[in-house]
TrEMBL record, chain A:
GO terms of biological process kind: GPI anchor biosynthetic process
Localization: Membrane
Pathway: Glycolipid biosynthesis; glycosylphosphatidylinositol-anchor biosynthesis
An annotated GO cellular component: glycosylphosphatidylinositol-N-acetylglucosaminyltransferase (GPI-GnT) complex
One Pfam family here: GPI2
A GO molecular function held by the record: glycosyltransferase activity
Annotated organism of origin: Mycena alexandri
Protein name: Phosphatidylinositol N-acetylglucosaminyltransferase subunit C
Chief site of localization: membrane
Topology class, membrane: Multi-pass membrane protein
TrEMBL record, chain B:
SUPFAM superfamilies: UDP-Glycosyltransferase/glycogen phosphorylase
One GO cellular component term noted in the UniProt record for this chain: glycosylphosphatidylinositol-N-acetylglucosaminyltransferase (GPI-GnT) complex
Name of the protein described by the UniProt record: Transferase
Source domain of life: Eukaryota
Amino acid sequence: MSTEWEKVLWKRQDHPDNHIVPGSFLSSLKKNANFRPYTYWPVVLLSCAITQHVATIFIFVSVFVRLKENYLDPHTLVWISVCCFFAGYLSWELLDRTGAGREHRRANRVKAAKSSILIFLALMSLSPVLRTLTAATSSDSIWALSATLFGVNALLADYSAISLGGEVHERLTSVLSMNAAISASVVLASRLANDLAVFALILFSVQAFALFPRLRHRLGLCPSTLRLAFTAVLFAVSILITGSLSRTVTWIYAAVQLGVTFLAPAVLVWAQKFKNEIRGPWDVAIPKVNC
Amino acid sequence: MLPTSIAMITDFFHPNVGGVENHVYMLSANLIRRGHKVIVITHSHQPDRVGVRWLVPSLKVYYIPFVPIASSATLPEFLTFLPYLRTILIREHIHLIHSHASLSSLGHEGILHSHLLGVRSVFTDHSLFGFDDAASILTNKLMAGSLKNVDAVICVSHTGRENTVLRGELFEKSDTDPPGLSVRDSVYVIPNALVPERFQPSPPPPSEIITIVVLGRLVYRKGIDLLVATAPRICQKFPNVRFLIGGDGPKLIDILQMREKHLLQDRIEILGPVRHNDVRSILVQGAIYMNTSLTESFGIAILEAACAGLYVVSTRVGGVPEILPKDMISFANPDEDDVCRAVGEAIKIVTDGKHDPLRAHELIKTFYDWDSVAVRTEAVYEAVFRSPQMELWERMKRTMQLGLFAGPIYTIILIVDCLFFLFLEWWMPREDIDFVREHWKQDMFEEMCQEAR
C-alpha cells in the first residue's frame, strides 16, 4: 500500500476497513496498571481483625450456653462486663491521646459516662420484657434465627482499620452488622430463666458487638506484635471456654479460625497470579476536580 | 454489489431518539437508495406502536410485541424471538441480517437464529464498555457468546474496535510461529456520519462576545462535574465569554447551583431539554463547542458542532481523538486545570480568527457522508457473502471455546434452538407462510397521492 495507515476516521485511507497494522493494534492497552501484589504476612496480620471478631462471637455463644445451663452466675458476668468496659475504655483513652484536643476529650468523656449509665438503666428496666419476648416461639426457631443473624453480623462487619487521626466513617453495612448481632443476642437472651441473666447477657453483648468493634478499629494503629498478641489471647480464651462445653464444636471452630487466619491469605496470594486487569482508552475517565 | 434484501435488527429504533436509532435509520435509507431492500425489526413501543409500519423512504419496520425492561432494551430470552424472526425472514426473502448495539438482546438473538435459515449475519457495535464491573462482565459474556458465530463485525471507531475485539473475544489462534492470537479479519471500522446540509454554519454575529455551547444529556458520564468546576473559572478569566448549556438530566441541578453560587445568571444561559430539530439553531449561536465527556465511542455531537462551524474543545477520551483533524479541535485531559487551559487556547484561536467556520464545514462534508458509509457497509456485506458459511458442528466447536461454564451453556442453547427451529418447521410449514410479493413502488404511491388530491 502506498500511504501509511493512521488511526483516524476523518481521512479516507487506501487500506480496506478491516486493515490492522501489526503492532499498533491494542498498543494503548495496559495490563494490571494499578496492581500492587499482596504478600503473605501483611495479609495474615490484616485477617487478625476477622479472627478477633469470630472469637468474640464464639465467646459470646459459650457464655450464653453457660448461663442457660447455670454453669455461670449472672453476677459474675455483670462484674466481668464492667471490668471489660473499664479496661476497654482505658485502652481507648490511651489510643485516643494523639487525636482531638483536651477540651474535646473532656466533653467526650462526659458524654460517654452519661450514655453508659443510660444504657445500664435502660437494659435493667427492659430485661423483664426481653425475657418473655419470644416465649411463644419454639427454641429451634430461635437457634436458627440467631445463627443466621450472627452469620450476617460476621459477613457485614467492618474489618478495616482507621488511619492515624482519621475519623471512623460509619458505613451502612457496619451498622446493619451491629444490629444483627444485638438482635441475635436479644432473641438468645429471651431463652434465659431469670431477669438478671437476661440483663447480664445483653450487657455483655453490647460490650462485645457495639463497643468492641469500635475499639478494634483503633487497635489497627497499634504495633503489629500487640495486635497479634491480642488476637492470640482472644483466640485462646474462646478455645478454652468452648472446649469445656463441646469437643466437636471446638475442633470445627479451631479449624475455621486457622483457615481464616493462615489458609485464606495463602489462597489469596496464590490466586493473584490469575489477575488480569485490562485498562485502555475506552475506560470511563475519572474527572480530576480541584478542591 | 447486486441488490439484496437486508433486515436490520435492534432494540433501539424510532420512535426513540438517539445515536443508534439515527444510525440504523440513515444506513437503511442509504442502502435503499442504492437499490437494496431493507426492513427493520425492533420491539414494540407503548402505547400502540405494534405491528408493521412504513417510514420514508419505503423502509418497512416490524414492531414485535416484546416489552422492554430497562432503557428500551428487551430481556435476553434466546428462544422467544425465533418464531417471529423465522416468519419475517421467510416472508420478506431476507438474505442478511444486520444487528446493532451490544445491549440489544433482540440483535444478539437474531445472530443466534439467522444461521438456521442460511441467512448471513453482521453486527455493529456502537458503544464502549469497561471490563471491571458486574454489568459489563455479564453483557460482555452475552456478547461474546453471540459474536462467536457472527460473519462480520463493524465498529464505529478504531478505539471501539479494540474494545469490541477484547469484549467479544474476536481473535483466532493463528498459525504463525510462535503460535499466538490474531484478530479475526472480519472486524471492520466504519465511522458514523452526518448530514452536513442540516448543520449549515451561519455568519458569526459581529460582536466581541464569544459563546461556548454545551449540548447533551447532563449526566455523570458526560463529565458535567468538569463543566461545573471549569465554567466559573473561565467566566472569571475571560470577561467576554458566555455559556449556552442545553440538555436535561440529573446533573442539571449542579449546573443551576453553580450558576447561583457564582452569580453568573447573565453569563450562563441554560436552555433545558432541546429537541433534535433545534440543535443547529443553538449550535450556530456559538463559536466554541465544549465537550467534557468521560467516555465516548464516536462523539457524533462533536462532529455536528464542528460541521456547524464551531471550534471544538474536548476531553481526550475514547474514539474522540480519531474523528477530527488536529486543527479543528483542542484536546484536554479530564482534569480541571487542563480543561481551562484548552478552553483558553480555543478562545485565543477563535479571537485571532484562525478558525474559519465555512472552511470547516466544507472539509467535514468531504470527511463524512452517509453514502460512503453505505458503500463501505456494502463492501462488508459482499465479503460476508463471499466467505464460506459455517457448519453447525463448527459453530458448536467455536461456542465450546467460550469457557468452562459459558461454553456448554451456550452450546445447549444453540442445540435447543435448532430443535425449536425443527419444531417450528413442522408446526408452521414454510408453504403456509404468506410471502411478500408486492414491494413498495414509489411512482405508484405518488400516483395515488395525486388521485387523492
